Amino acid sequence: MSTQTPSGTEAAVTEAAVTEATEVTDVAIIGAGPVGLFAVFECGMLQLRCHVIDALPTLGGQCVALYPEKPIYDIPAAPELTASELIARLQQQIAPFQPRFHLDQQVTELQRRDAAWELTTSRGTRIRARAVMVAAGVGAFGPNRPPLPGIEQYEGRCVHYLVAERERFRGQRLVIAGGGDSAVDWAIALADSAAEIHVIHRREQFRAAPETSARLHELAAAGKIQLVIPYQLAALEGDGERLGAVVVKTLKGEERRIEADHLLAFFGLASKLGPINDWGLGAHNGVIPVDPSTCATSLPGVFAIGDIANYPRKLKLILTGFAEAAHAAHAAYAVVHPDRALHFEHSTTVGVPLREP
Amino acid sequence: MPVIHFVTTSGETLTLAAENGRSIMEVAKANDLPMLAACGGALACATCHVIVDEDWYDRLDPPSEDEEDLLDTAHGLTPTSRLCCQIRVSDALDGIRVTLTPMD
Ligand SMILES: Cc1cc2nc3c(=O)[nH]c(=O)nc-3n(C[C@H](O)[C@H](O)[C@H](O)COP(=O)(O)OP(=O)(O)OC[C@H]3O[C@@H](n4cnc5c(N)ncnc54)[C@H](O)[C@@H]3O)c2cc1C
Ligand code: FES
User: Fold this and answer.
1) Whose CA is nearest to atom 7 of ligand 1?
2) Do you find a cis peptide bond into A149, omega within 30 degrees of 0?
3) Which residue from A67, A139, A201 is facing B44, i.e. has the nearest CB?
4) Mean pLDDT, chain A, as a whole number?
5) pLDDT digits (tens, 9 = 90+) for B25-38
6) The domain spanning residue A182 has which CATH number?
7) pLDDT of residue A20
8) Residue A14 contacts residue A101 (beta carbons within 8 Å)
9) Of the N and C termini of chain A, which has fewer Cβ atoms inside 10 Å?
10) Do A276 and A228 belong together in one domain?
11) Could you tell me if A153 and A327 are in contact, meaning their C-beta atoms sit under 8 angstroms apart?
12) A34-45 and A83-94 helices cross at what angle (nearest 10)?
């Protein structure tokens, strides 16, 4: 799983313009995974303009968040390419259609307004679109939050999932939880400036490079870091504003209380359907039922494609999602242009029609 | 066909027939049990976390290093926690009992 490390952040798509006013477009695509990206192409071929929103700061959905370096073998006519190459090629393929990206923000609301849909994001971006394609995969990616009661009230203040500014931890008592690179790298990086560091992990082995693991154990031997193993997080104590202590337990239930000012939890990324469950799309166990011939959901003008779309014998494959994007684009055309017949021509006939900017 | 007993988070037990060769995750999903299994068995999500009955835990092939690594990112672990997309149904597992974890 990719998370931020002290040595650098993962490549961010910086050309993404983030806007505050209400945007108007033909199709709003929720999710910039492979399927959402290809939907831009299919819509573009029908001259439908698209805006794409994703909770992650990067394009690519699962491909980039979970397995960027892994080779994929079942993309037609691409015998082997890595997941991040697939995304780079999709970006290239859709560039002529000039999609607008709104990244690092989750779509939290979907509301019917007049004859259109209005989407609102966690950053306050509002987008009006005739048609919506929910290409949300397995949900919005975000930090994998430990399910500790009351954790939300400390988030951003005393509970952190990434280190934005290391100076704020100077002289502080830290609990760092997790066993991967982020946890180990930050424990090492903050060992000198923090007052105290406890590293909580459920087993002896860390999933970090051998040199970094060795360094962690050196710092532990020198008393600069306390390793609390085999423990996992159990509860937080505090007054609702400031954290007082982190309670940890062994797998067998023995408890320990560690006084701390901050908890840094590094458990990688997790996906959550979250608000999509409340949009009246009949989402159940993480998927939305659709008519496979159009990918239409139960709401007019709202389509679901890719991993999140479900029908009998659905295959959760990238290639299935690509085909669904084509079905949905054709169905969306009728929603955006109810008065115009769709005259279809193959890409070999029309080429890639460049839109006026 | 072997059967698997699934205990839900509310304590209800569901006994389901399972085809040999499928994973326990696939059996759970095919029967619409509350389990996310977000990555579809690609060992990339830990949302198929189950707690295996103690009597059964040692009879399973031990978890791979990759499964152990991913278990590091699961919450509410117990000594018999497993990612059930990695457990294949066979006659030897007839009657195994696993407890689901909250979908959250
Ligand atoms: C390890 C691994 C290996 C795989 N190997 C293959 C393979 O070889 N071949 C194959 O075909 N498939 C493979 N898959 C499956 C494939 O990756 C998925 O089928 C594919 O990513 C689905 O694409 P998608 O665009 O539907 O969704 P995703 O890739 O899941 O993207 C959805 C995006 O939507 C965003 N999102 C969700 N909700 C919101 C919201 N409310 N607001 C804003 N953004 C939101 C998410 O942040 C995410 O970025 C593999 C999966 C994994 C984990
Ligand atoms: S289904 Fe994702 S790890 Fe098992």
Assistant:
1) A72
2) no
3) A67
4) 92
5) 999 999 999 999 99
6) 3.50.50.60
7) 53
8) no
9) C
10) no
11) no
12) 20
Chain A residue closest in CA terms to B67: A207
Residues A178 and A111 in one domain: no
Range of the domain at A164: 145-267
What CATH number does residue B89 fall under? Answer: 3.10.20.30
A285 touches chain B (CB under 8 A): yes
Q: Which residues of A touch B72 (CB under 8 A)?
A: 178-180, 201-203, 207, 267
Any CB–CB contact under 8 A between A274 and chain B? no
Contacts A178 to B, Cβ<8 Å: 72-73
Q: Which pLDDT belongs to residue A234? A: 97
Ligand 1 pocket, mutate which of A318, A324, A327 (most atoms under 8 A from CB)? A318
Residues A257 and A212 in one domain: yes
Q: Residue B19 sits in which domain range? A: 3-100
Helix (H/G/I), strand (E/B), else coil: A253: coil
Same structural domain for residues A309 and A340? yes
pLDDT at A171 over 60: yes
CA distance A133 to B81: 37
Same domain, A61 and A79: yes
In a domain, A76, yes or no: yes
Rounded to whole angstroms, the Cα distance separating B49 from B74 reads 7
Give the angle subtended at the CA of A48 by the CAs of A44 and A53, to the nearest 5°. Answer: 85
Kindly give the residue spans of alpha helices, DSSP state H, lying in B1-104: 24-30, 54-57, 65-71
pLDDT over threshold 50, residue A288: yes
Distance of CA A148 to the CA centre of its chain: 21
Which residues does A313 contact at the CB level (< 8 Å), separation at least 6? Answer: none
pLDDT recorded at residue A21: 77
Residue A108 has pLDDT above 50, yes or no: yes
Residue B1's contacts (CB-CB under 8 Å, 6 or more residues apart) are: B17, B18, B19, B20
Q: How many CA atoms lie within 13 A of A34 on its CB side?
A: 28
Report how far apart, in Å, the C-alpha atoms of A137 and of each of A31, A54, A288 are: 7, 11, 10
Span of A18-27, A198-207, B5-14 with lowest mean pLDDT: A18-27
Q: Report the number of distinct structural domains present in chain A.
A: 2
A169/A180 Cα distance (integer angstroms) = 20
**pLDDT tens, A330-357?**
999 999 999 999 988 899 988 886 644 4
CA distances A245 to A56, A144, A159, A191, A270, Å, are 31, 21, 12, 19, 25
Q: Does the pLDDT of residue A8 top 50, yes or no?
A: no
Q: If you count them, how many residues does chain A have? A: 357
